[in-house]
Amino acid sequence: MTRPVATHNPITSAGKEDDMKRSEVARRGRRIGLTSAGILVAATGAALAHGADGGVAVAVEGAPSWSLSPVYHILVAHFPVGLWMTAYLFILIRSFSDSKFAVRVQNAIWPVAALGTLAGFVTYGLGLTIYPWSAITESPLGRNHIMLATWTLSYWTVMSVLGYRFRRHLFVGAQRWITFTLATIGAIVITITGTLGGSLTGTPSLVTKSLSWIGWNVYMTFYLPTWMLAVYVAGALLLIAIGIIGWKRRV
Amino acid sequence: MAIFSGLLVLGWVTHGTGIVKDDPERNIVIPDELMSELQVKAAYDGEKIWFRYRWPVDRPSLFNDVLVYQDGEWETRGGEALGPNPDFLTEDRVAMMIDDGSVPLFGRYGGYITIGDGLTTFTGVPETEEERTKYLPSTRTDPNDFEALKPESDLEMLRAAGQFIDLWQWRSSRSNPIGLGDDGFVAEERGGDAGTGPYTTNWDSATEQPLYMFDPDVAGSAALSIDAVTGGDVGFNDIYYLSADTALPFDPTLAWKNGDTIPRRYLRPATGSRGDVVEPSVARWRNGFWDVTLERAMDTGNPLDDKIFRDGASYDLAFAVFRNASTMRWHYVTLPVSLGLEQPAQMVAERIEPGTEPDWTQPWTEIKTFYPGQVTWGRLTDARQHPGADRIAQRVPVAVRHTEEQLALYGVQMEFAEEIRRQWIWTLIASLSLIVGLGINVNLLMRRREDAI
């Protein structure tokens, strides 16, 4: 394939490069989308085919007419966890090193994080199919797992967008420490979400216990007092306002 | 970052506040302690079986309900209360449920199976003339409907099949002073076995006066003072109960004065099957613990009232402890515990020589007790309300999935189920808005290298 030769007009040349980049991104997006859809279809097929014939069938009052076995959620959950934690590891390396290896690793951060987010959405969806919403939201541990999973997914969506938009610039100057802090918070919420999932399946870990040492017994629903809800919403608006003001000043 | 991190820390510090609090209007009183402990030992000699219980109580309650003279009338005080009785006019108690494997699921879920919907003191249940007690699900055509009692013939059939729980009780005020326990059951209701119990009501409704008073020659006076009773100044060395040995028929002509106090219960020997459970000696509270021993014939000859103990057999037990002057559902319960007579079990009864008394040298079985909150069997078995309903249908024992601490916390949260769920959803929305705010903020403020130049 012959690459277009640069013209004398630098503006036209830059425009063509942008077009090429966009089409390359689109191609990659299509590939990722198709692969993900394929995996999803295969996983759904396997889930539907999963044996309902094992053991003695028991009637349960109020049981949903259809639900997925938790094993698929548990299985798929390892993908976003693994991918996000890999992205965190790369961020960690890049934050503390300017070596060639660190710079090379930096290029993989956003694709890995984005793939994790994609897998995260699939995992989240699978998780919601296990129990009726009315039941899982009666369980303090269930509520906490949903809460943390929502935080994790939304947070890493933000991180993925950030990674895609800023790439190497995430590690320019003081921004590397902002990136490092953001990613560390992200790694913490992943860890808590995962350990809550483990607790839900009856295997609490040391993380479960250690959370209670620092003030949160995970068997108590995490909720904020009403005044704190208002503070959070006000905080969100303040963050947006600061962002807009800062952006306008720069522009 | 500072704003975001600060809000996270603030959220962490303030979470879980603002909802769980006492609400007497809805019969909600949360005990200060959700967990406690019970120590148990058992021994048998082939004829009799003994159980010894020991549990912590800061201040023993020697009284239950009392009659207090006030301006010419006798008023009832104490007895039932929402949560702890501030005057310590609610007795301490230990109860033990026993099954021999005949009651489905009891060995896996213990007392939870007896908590149907609409029991007395549960939030939203209207007060009824008769107490709506615990019952076994199999005694109802609809297990979750207290009113849906099966016909008498079905209940008799269930009883003959062993579908009842033997219930032993010991009461610090209404049985202990005369060395008795109380033998009952849980089947279509929680009730006493055939015969008479260890107490009767000291009240003449025709004259609206007590039936008995203290014998001044024995007790030193015809009544106690309410201040001494509620202040804890009456002890084991005082005469604090009415019985044939300590009481006389009430004399209305005495110069009664305000604050004179007489127990509202008159203690008497229990009779029939109800009198099967006795104490070898009157229990005492010492050094912060009640130490109680109950004994019964292994085979009482009343197989429709009692679970018969047999050498080489296994049983399922579940305990409840009432402390800090609390009654009704403000008790501390245990998960089911297996008992073996010459059989491996969580608690193994010691075999002793026939005709001897236990020397109690074997170690205690330590059992965690917890406040159960308001959790009904109907809720637990409904997949729309309990994610573990399918596990119950598969007969997975509760202890496999939950610890006592967990169950205590869940029980309390169940008392505020709707409020907590609502607040949790709002927290989800507010925290999501914060993350979105952070995302917008960082995306707007981050700079590319060329921007910075």
Describe the structure.
The complex is a heterodimer of chains A (251) and B (453). Chain A has nine helices and no strands. The longest helix of chain A is centred in the first third of the chain and has 40 residues, at 10-49. Chain A has a domain at 68-225. Chain A has helices spanning 10-49, 70-96, 100-106, 109-128, 133-136, 140-166, 175-200, 206-213, 226-250. Chain B contains eleven helices and 21 strands. In chain B, the strands form four sheets. In chain B, strands 1, 2, 5, 6, 7, 8, 15, 16, 17, 18, 19, 20 and 21 form a 13-stranded mixed beta sheet that branches. A four-stranded antiparallel beta sheet of chain B has the order 4-3-13-11. Chain B has a two-stranded antiparallel sheet with strand order 9-14. At the A-B interface, helix 5, helix 6, helix 7 and helix 9 of A face helix 1, helix 7, helix 9, helix 10 and helix 11 of B.
Give a nutshell description of this structure:
The complex is a heterodimer of chains A (251) and B (453). Chain A has 251 residues and is mostly helical.
Question: What is this structure's SSE topology?
Answer:
The complex is a heterodimer of chains A (251) and B (453).
Chain A: H1 10-49, H2 70-96, H3 100-106, H4 109-128, H5 133-136, H6 140-166, H7 175-200, H8 206-213, H9 226-250
Helix pairs in contact in A: 2-3, 2-4, 2-7, 4-6, 6-7
Chain B: H1 2-14, E1 35-44, E2 48-56, E3 66-70, E4 73-77, E5 93-99, H2 106-109, H3 152-160, E6 165-171, E7 182-186, E8 190-192, E9 199-201, E10 212-214, H4 216-219, E11 224-225, H5 226-230, E12 247-249, E13 260-263, E14 265-267, E15 284-286, E16 289-297, E17 314-322, E18 332-333, E19 337-341, E20 347-351, E21 365-370, H6 377-380, H7 389-393, H8 398-401, H9 404-414, H10 417-445, H11 449-452
Parallel strand pairs in B: 1-20, 19-20
Antiparallel strand pairs in B: 1-2, 1-21, 2-16, 3-4, 3-13, 5-6, 5-17, 6-7, 7-8, 9-14, 10-12, 11-13, 15-16, 17-18, 17-19
